[in-house]
Structure prediction request, 294 residues.
Amino acid sequence: MKIATLGLNERAYIGRTQREMLDYCRNRCLDLKSLSPDMIVFPEIVFIMYPEKEPLSYGEFFEMALAEMKDTARLVNSYLVFNLYEPAEESEKRYIATYVLNRNGEVAGKYRKIYPTKGEMASGVVPGDLPCVIDTEFGRIGIATCFDIGFRSYWQSLADLGAKAVIWTSAYDGGKLLDAYAVLHSYWVISSVRTYRARIIDPAGRTVSESARWDDLCMADIDLDMELFHIDDQIPKIREIRRVLGDKVKVDTLSEDNIFTVSSRDPEWSVERVKSEFGLVSCKEYHKEAELLR
Prediction:
């Protein structure tokens, strides 16, 4: 899965109207088309940074932006992930909703931010009530938004629901908590932020790509089937896998953690097949086995 996620700092949006910001993001998608991303991710509420410059109602802008992003997804043949203010049932209220569109411009899923800030709720934002995982052609992904980062139980719920990656859209960088969640739950974390540092973090907590002050694009090929394994009783298996499969799989060791990762480079050799044929036990399975023996 080739992910393109963006760190759109203030140079991208200061002074632009809603209409201009929507055009900017659509054009950014078209710019990226030649790189053939499977998914493009935008920061939290990046279309509506300064709504007072163009006082459309939330409902009017929501309908217009959703329709145009559906068209964009079809044009670039990519999944798109972005936030919108979605009108709530109660007048003048709204959700912060993350939409995931598939390559055909269809809504693959949406998530209404469960943990808005106090300031957001004071301004009319209504909390959502359900965690969100979405099945894609690459695997199951979870969605989180900005202030959700502070609620550990939410990130656990995404793991319990089988997420292989979590997309976190935000107004700020997030810092070490994102690394911690990736390691704790053995999933990828992809951030898109309204600063400089969007990141792609692997299940071992390593940043494999990030954007910069001079380049808003963070991009990487990721394997959602990558798994973590403890070294106990498994060191000989590492050597055997390398001897038999060569570069068909990638094995990375993390010395300080006493773990290693396995990811596939060959569609004939999924990580699940490698586990089965070489008797590998994942970290999650290993800890479950130990817990049952207590």
